[in-house]
Amino acid sequence: MDCGSVHYTAISLSLRLWSHGVLQKPSKGECCGCDAVFFLDVDMDANQTTMRGTATIEVTMASIVAMAAFAFGLSYVLDGSIFFLCATVTTTFLIGLFVVLFLNTGRASSTDGLLTVVAFYSGLTWLTIVFTTAAHGWQGRWGTSLGALLALALVTDTVVLLYTFLPVRNRVARRWMFRALWMWIIAQFIAFLALAFISDYRLGVITIILGVHLMLHGMRVGGGCSNYGLSIVVFIFLSALLFCIVGGWSTAQSVYKTPASTWLLPNYTWHGGNTPVTGVSLPQSLSFLPVCLVRFSSTVDIVGMALFAKLSDAGSLDVTLADLHRWFPNFRYVYNDTFLPLSFLQTKIFTSSLKGHNTTIVTLGTTDQMYPVMESMTIWINVVALSLLALITPSGWFVQLVSLISAADELSALLWNSSIDRARDILSAYVKSIVSPTHDVYFVGHGLAGAAAAFFVSDLPENMHSVTFASPLSAVAWRRGHNWMSDELSSRVLSVVSSSSLFSLRWMWGGLSYMIPCNLPEGECHNIDSMARLLDALCGLNTKSDGN
């Protein structure tokens, strides 16, 4: 599901509301298949032919929640608090739930159904504006599009309110006005659905599925159908969207503003090269886990690689330099780049020269731009779903299924994809300009950014290597059309994952990952701070001297 395109899900409820708002509810003995002809024969109740006096409780509740959603969204645009964004999403989906539940009671009249669905339509439109403003601002073509969308919603709301409260007593006239308004709303929903397919193929498929579900729910016989199934679907969509928001926010919060070297392994200082891990005595090496042995470099140990991954989250140059001089005094800072104005990915480059041999560390981390990071959280939804399928699906079928999904995913133009493509082009050109037999380059990262670091290595010369921590290699691999199970990459990519669970989604991390035990909660185990401490405790490589 695309976190920024929730407006298009309105097509699903329109199918259900058509079957109520313009159709008369059939009796238990009637066939639901004849409901379609009722659109041309809708009857207007007596209270729908005169000016309305007071709104019903259903309309009142939907309107109050819609106004709350508007207030929360405006607060988020002005303040930027994650609470207001979550509240905006929750109240908007609550309107949708109210629409279905109220109409299924049979108490709401045709006009009431029209008012409630317009309240939901307005809430979804406002939610789209909030998301898009947070991502791109109200400027340029985005501002023009948002202005047109807002004007369209205001026109729809105004016309519906005029229809509802104007004292038009001619029943035939009000009937045709009613039909015209419903056709106007449904035409908008269909147009938005077409745009959903153009901009995001997955969203179009998901919206169609939800729409068919709601349509079948609406074509029930009598009032004996349970609302639980429909409520579950609404809550699943709400949960997925909140997962994207909270996950993106927590990832963006990993960017730190003060030096971490004062509290994260403060005694660690690596001067490199003089005491490589491969030089330890045999009895001592037996106590080491395989991950503790140097795979690629004698310049930086595995703990140092984890600390470089931590450096990727430094929020300013001063913080980066303070931690770099504390942990790696023999390295110097080169530069950093975020590639795009709205990118979830940033890179920092560090280099060191020791005895005629040069080492460059390229770290990839996330920025504090919440919206692109939030879009990257859609990967985790795909990962969990596909990992569950992997348990019961033969490997050959599973690979074919994954390839089909990733082919459809290529039609989606997320900010995450543009960040990856731009970073790959720039970094590939930079690395190829410095690579030589006496110059090693390592890509280091954690989380989704770390998986991107491993992905970049596959397109670079063979002496390029990658070290990642808690990175879902397989998730990014199938999304980018690669296969991490290749033997060619096993000597170039080291992926370290810590887990406290015996049952872990191995497919998510990939066959190249090395799993180390962790006694912390599962969420803490994947934190780069915890992994650095864990590796330091397991490997015993906390060099407190100058390396002599």
UniProtKB/TrEMBL annotation:
Transmembrane segments: 55-76, 82-102, 114-134, 146-166, 178-197, 228-249, 379-399
Signal peptide: none
Keyword RNA-binding found: no
Keywords: Membrane, Transmembrane, Transmembrane helix
Protein name, UniProt field: Uncharacterized protein
UniProt source species: Trypanosoma cruzi
